[in-house]
Automatic annotation (TrEMBL):
Protein name: DUF1244 domain-containing protein
Top-level taxonomy: Bacteria, Pseudomonadati, Pseudomonadota, Gammaproteobacteria, Lysobacterales
Signal sequence, renumbered to the chain: none
Domain SMc04008-like: 28-93
One matching Pfam family: DUF1244
Recorded superkingdom: Bacteria
Length: 100
């Protein structure tokens, strides 16, 4: 495959993952993603911002999160984010030790 096709396929896969997390599974909490996969929506936003920075594009954290969340982060939190349970916090801490 040529490099442009690879880039287009990777971009399409990213958009599908982003849209899946936004539209199909907004119920999955970021902390659960972090526990199981070691990344979350905020990580995707950080990676997006890093890619922009590498290309000389200025983007702050809020702008990147709005791209990933499809809305301002505060709005997403109000609609979808729940307080972490003690069990989630304990699992997150254990996961951090495994991945750290």
């Amino acid at each position: 495959m040529d490099p442009q096709t690879v880039t287009e396929l990777e971009a399409a896969a990213f958009r599908r993952l982003r849209d899946h997390l936004l539209q199909e599974r907004p119920d999955v909490q970021n902390i659960d993603l972090m526990i199981l996969a070691g990344f979350c929506r905020n990580c995707l936003a950080d990676w997006y911002r890093d890619a922009a920075t590498e290309r000389g594009i200025t983007m702050n954290k809020d702008q990147a999160r709005e791209i990933v969340y499809g809305m301002p982060f505060a709005e997403w939190k109000a609609k979808h984010q729940k307080d972490a349970t003690p069990e989630q916090l304990a699992a997150f801490e254990a996961a951090q030790k495994r991945h750290g």
